[in-house]
Amino acid sequence: MLGRGLALIPGIALCGIITAVSLGAQRLEEHVFIHPYVEALVIAILLGMAIRTVWQPSERWLSGIAFSAKQLLEVAVMLLGASVSFAAIAASGYLLVGAIVATVVVMLAVSFSLSRMLGLPTKMSILIACGNSICGNSAIAAVAPVIGANSDDVASSISFTAILGVLMVLGLPLLIPLLGLSATQYGILAGLTVYAVPQVLAATVPAGIVSTQIGTLVKLVRVLMLGPIVVALSLVAARRRKLHADQAKVAAISPFKLVPWFIIGFLVLAALRSLHLVPDLVVAPVTKTAAILTVLSMAALGLGVDVRVLSTVGGRVTAAVTLSLLLLLGLSIGLVHLFR
């Protein structure tokens, strides 16, 4: 075990350097623009891809890179549960919560079907559907290890989703005067359509504090949908693995085998947080740790990407993500008129 641990150090250290550079770039964005328009995890995966383009990692680096891309990402997803409280969701009202859940479910089905119609593989279609419908890059990163998506699928999904996410932040405020939206309506629209929480803040701050608060709340409900969706996907993946195994006799399967350990950890931490058993002082450092581990994992994924694969699927992925986002925007615009 000591030998294995030492073998991981070079690859993890390389991912750590990329992570530090990416976080520094995001901090510079925050200093200049107040809110980051391109998140550190996007910068990390692009830097990793750029390095991989000019350099092929040897065996000395690969084990640490693989560990960072999978195990560390699973730890990050688990830790995010400590920042989730179900009380805030219950306080927002059943109509709004129901509308958000319905929007996510409908867009999951529509985005997946659209991606498959465009000829994309099943796993990439799932990533695109989850990214567009739930919470962009974070959803893609969380779903990827559950369905066994490879680095190329993850990188393709995140890269194009990130580009459109930035365009949404820049263009969404223009709809306020065009559609005559109130602060409440615009907050709901931003929360339903913008991918990342920092981007929701960037898109709603110009519209006022009411839009920012409502947008953040709606976004939180969307993020909470990630837990049930990932659990459902893990159950489907387990069933498919069992069918492919073609076993005549199947023993009782433990829930820990059906549902990945990190998803169980996520739900446990969320429940403890909702019961006020996780102190407020712990939430901030745990969330920060999860964010850093996620960026580090994205750096590892970038280092494992073959850019030539991206070039073969870029057009179809771009079309799938763009059309899915336009459909989500149209559905959300129709929905916000219910909330005056």
TrEMBL record:
Its main location: membrane. It is found in: Cell membrane. The chain crosses the membrane at residues 34-51, 72-89, 95-114, 126-148, 154-176, 188-214, 220-238, 258-278, 290-310, 317-339. InterPro entries: UPF0324_pro. Keywords: Cell membrane, Membrane, Transmembrane, Transmembrane helix. Belongs to the UPF0324 family. This is Sulfate exporter family transporter. It comes from Bradyrhizobium icense.
